[in-house]
Design goal:
The chain has nine helices and 21 strands. It is α+β, with helices and mostly antiparallel strands.
C-alpha cells in the first residue's frame, strides 16, 4: 500500500507544488516554518481542500484526479486525521469521541484498551491531561480503520515534560502501524524522533527529503542546514591549500573546509562538532575561532554556548570544568571535515 500525492495549489504568497510517495508502514515528517504549506498537504489528502491541480491515490484507489474532474469527499476517504489541537468534541465523553466515525462497533473498546484509556471512557475532554487528550484523539483517528494516518503538529499542544513521554509512546505506535503516515511539525527534533523520512518544506516546495541523519550530514540548501540546527557563516572561498579550502568569513575570521568551493559561500557547522577551550588545543583541527561568550543556555545535561558567530554544544561537565562565564574570551574549535560549504547564492531571504 502506497500513498501518492501530486498537486499544485495557489496560496496567499506562493503556489504550493508538492509531489510525495509514502510507502506502506512508512512515516514521513514534513518540517518547515509556519505558513510553509505543511498543513495544506494534509488537507489535500484528507479532501478538506480541493487543489487547483493534482492527484491523490492510495494503493491504486483514486481520491483525486483533477484531469478527470474526480474528487472524493472526505467521508469517502479512508483517512485518520489527528488535528493540531486534537479537536475532541467537548460535549462527548471519551468513548463517544472515539466512537464518532468508527468503522465498526468493536473498534471502540479495542482502541480504548490499546491506548490505555479505557478507565477514562466516561470522562469529558476538559477532565483529561494533554497526553490523555492526545491518546483519545489518536484512538478516534484509528477507530476509523484508516488506510492513511495524518498528524498535524502532534506534540505542539503538550508541555515539555509531557512531550518527552508522549514522543516515546507515539514513536512506538507509529512503528507498529501497517499504513502510510504523514506528520507535519515545525520541530526538527520531533521529526527526527518520529519519522523514517523527513522532508523540509518552504514556500510550498519540498527542498530535500531523506533520513534525519542524511539531512544533517549533507544539507542541499542553506535553509535545510539552519533548520536542522547548523550555524551558517557567510564568506568567500579563496582557494585550495593542501587539500582544504580557505574561507575568509565576512566577520573577518579565517576558516577551513574539506569541501571544495569558490566564490561566495556559506560555511555550515553544527554545534555538536565544536569544542571549547581557553586556548587553541593541539591536534588536527584547523579551525580556531576566538571570541567572547555571548550567551550560555543549559538544556538538560548539555550546554549551548554562543561564541562570536558560532554556537557550540558541550556537556554540562565540560562547561563546569571550563568555568564558562558570559563575556569571557574562549576558543571555538572544529575540524575542516566538519565544516561544509554551500554556495551563498542558494541562500533564502
Amino acid at each position: 500500500m502506497a500513498l501518492r500525492v501530486d498537486f499544485a495549489h495557489p496560496l496567499r504568497s506562493f503556489v504550493a507544488t508538492v509531489k510525495l510517495t509514502v510507502a506502506r508502514s512508512a512515516t514521513l515528517a514534513l518540517v518547515g516554518p509556519s505558513g510553509a504549506g505543511k498543513t495544506t498537504v494534509l488537507r489535500v489528502i484528507a479532501g478538506l481542500l480541493r487543489p487547483e491541480r493534482g492527484t491523490v491515490t492510495l494503493d491504486g484507489e483514486t481520491w483525486l484526479d483533477s484531469d478527470r474532474g474526480f474528487y472524493a469527499p472526505p467521508e469517502r476517504r479512508r483517512v485518520g486525521y489527528l488535528f493540531q489541537e486534537y479537536a475532541l468534541f467537548p460535549h462527548l465523553d471519551v468513548a463517544a469521541n472515539v466512537a464518532f466515525g468508527a468503522r465498526r462497533r468493536g473498534l471502540v473498546a479495542e482502541m480504548l484498551d490499546r491506548f490505555g484509556i479505557a478507565h477514562l471512557a466516561n470522562a469529558r475532554p476538559c477532565e483529561l491531561s494533554g497526553g490523555e487528550r492526545q491518546r483519545a484523539a489518536l484512538a478516534r483517528a484509528l477507530a476509523r480503520d484508516p488506510g492513511v494516518l495524518l498528524l498535524d503538529e502532534p506534540l505542539s499542544a503538550l508541555d515539555a515534560h509531557t512531550k518527552a513521554t508522549v514522543r516515546v509512546e507515539l514513536h512506538e505506535l507509529l512503528r507498529s502501524l501497517d499504513l502510510p503516515t504523514i506528520l507535519v511539525t515545525h520541530d526538527f527534533e520531533d521529526a527526527a524522533a518520529l519519522a523514517d523520512t523527513v522532508g523540509v518544506i518552504v514556500d510550498g516546495r519540498v527542498l530535500q527529503t531523506g533520513t534525519a541523519s542524511e539531512l544533517v550530514a549533507s544539507p542541499a540548501d542553506p535553509f535545510v542546514a539552519t533548520f536542522t540546527g547548523a550555524t551558517l557563516l557567510p564568506g568567500s572561498a579563496l582557494g585550495r591549500v593542501d587539500g582544504v579550502t580557505e574561507i575568509l568569513l565576512d566577520s573577518g575570521l579565517t576558516a577551513w573546509s574539506a569541501d571544495p568551493g569558490s566564490g561566495r559561500v556559506s560555511l555550515v557547522v553544527y554545534p555538536w562538532d565544536i569544542s571549547l577551550d581557553h586556548q587553541a588545543p593541539d591536534g588536527s583541527a584547523l579551525n580556531h575561532l576566538r571570541g567572547r561568550i555571548a550567551s550560555i543556555v543549559q538544556l538538560g545535561d548539555r550546554v549551548r554556548v554562543r561564541v562570536g558567530p558560532v554556537v557550540a554544544e558541550i556537556t554540562a561537565a565540560s562547561a563546569e570544568r571550563l568555568r564558562l562565564r558570559e563575556g569571557d574570551v574562549i576558543v571555538a574549535t572544529f575540524k575542516a571535515t566538519a565544516a561544509r560549504l554551500l554556495p551563498l547564492s542558494q541562500s533564502r531571504t
